[in-house]
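The material for today's practical consists of a large collection of protein records. There is nothing in a record beyond a sequence line and a structure line. Backbone structure tokens are a discrete shorthand for how the chain folds in space. Nothing more is needed to start thinking about how sequence determines fold. As an example, a complete record with its sequence and its structure tokens follows.
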Amino acid sequence: MARTRVRLSPLLASARRMGAVAGKMVHRAVKQAARQVAAQSHRPPRTGDWTSGMVFGPAGARRFRLYLPPGVHASARVPLLVMLHGCQQDADGFATLTGMNRLAARQGFAVLYPEQDRLANPQGCWNWYGTRSHLADAEAATLLLALDQVLLRHPLDGARVAVAGLSAGASMAALLAARSPDRFVAVAMHSGLAPGVADSSLSALRAMFGGAEPQAPGSAAASWPPLLVIHGSLDGVVSPNNGVAAANLWAQALGARATAERRVQRGQRRPMQVTDHLVGRRVVVSQCLVSGLGHAWSGGARSLPFSEPSGPDASALIWAFVRRQFVR
């Protein structure tokens, strides 16, 4: 039986052609989006181990991620850096943002990324300011339990542990180091606030704008570990005054003297003004004010929130500072 060919009207033919073109455009858009997601996915380096865990403490359950560099075995204990994310972040995203795992793979250290629970803080912030409610105490104790857990289960050197963080994570890192100085050889604050500037959410907001001074350190503060402060000069979320206040508080506690401010610039990255505080010839506090940097991780991954790729590499600065503390 012969087939009858149906001639499409020009309008219907045009509609089909437009549909085909639109389909191709959608297909290309989907492929491009998939490539972007893959490029920004929370994948660790292809070398080393990237594991998940959970700890139960006074603040409840907290998840964490742990990166172990390649070649780690039971007889070779490696240093550990604890990384505390900021608000609206999680452990995977913070690892991607900072690129710390890639650096750890090259330098041979492990990285622990605790993660805040959204039930404890809807914005994912660490409750560093909750000293009046004792929520900060509970979270600090839970973080120390996470540290104990990974030290017990993995070939890590408990005598070479440092802690660093961004924003609320930086404030919690400083609180941990101030309260448990025997647990850390160094602490790094990126865009954070010093301990003692707030005891509630309301006072924390006031302090973020530079409206509070940290309390004078007690006699126990003389044992605080060395501090690195990184802050942006144009930070509109946490005033740069907080970075200065944290550095001065730490220097006062350790009896350190300030050196002359110097300008440092690496290649085409943003310059920074650096002020070191010394005890003898040893740098115990280093304050880095990055010119033109807002509330973002300096030198972070491209196209991610809270990241400024043009800034000096904060991850490299942190590890260089931490590593110097291993030799005393």
Remarks:
- Confidence is low (pLDDT under 50) at residues 1-16, 21-45.
